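Researcher: Here's the sequence for the chain we discussed earlier.
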Amino acid sequence: MKLVFFGGSNFSVFVLEELKLHNIMPEFIITTPDKPKGRKLVLAPTLVKVWAKENGIEVIDPSSLKKDNSDFISKLSALNSRLFLVASYGKIIPQEILDIPQKGTLNVHPSLLPKLRGASPIKSAILQENETGVSIMLLDAEMDHGPILAEKKIISWENNNPPYEKDLAEMLGHKGGQMLAKIIPDWLNDKLEIKEQNHEQATFCGKIEKEDGQINLEDNPEKNLRKIRAYHEWPVAFYFIERNGKKIRVNIKSASIKDGKLVLEKIIPEGKKEMLYDDFLRGQK
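Model: Thanks. This is the structure I predict for it:
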């Protein structure tokens, strides 16, 4: 099978790892360009680019997928791929590219479509749902709009105990990869039917911004816990305290709810290393 894979995040890597376990390896991987990270803004590759190089797969990170990047589109066409695969790529793929492979382009989407179409389905599930799963869909030019090949609920949780984003991404990525590995042979041999989404029931989730992580410790405990766990890795939930007339930012790394109250467990005060919240309080006294 000549496969091309589009991806970028940790979710994408979990999908790739599962495909590898099932002896399904893409011949070519597309990801997004390196981005500056950290305080020194050093250019860093996507996790998918790192994985591709570790596994000896050719990888390219085009800045544009539009028609003006004719060299890139010509290279994709010359691969004669039967199928393209997408998992958390981070960009809208033009119809011109989706139509290149003979059997179209399949997407692993970490939500129960048509719920949570858009840029942040994993974080948004933690913020506002009590269950989520994985959908395998045939991509069209609209965002998460295409027909469904398979869908499965993976996890549900009580209101006061949502998963952390990293753990949920890993769970959904592996399950999505398993589903995709099972589906690919049948799809290539025309043994699968597709089902249109109910577009009237669609919900959408937007891009998360850095400032979305700020919380008020006096807010509803469940609302705050959901933010802490959804934003565990990025943008990180935080609040401010006053010290010597200055505002000090405190990042929250873990928390829980006990007796109806939010209990902070681990934090990172500005300029310091991660510590237990209780130790931080003792230092304040």
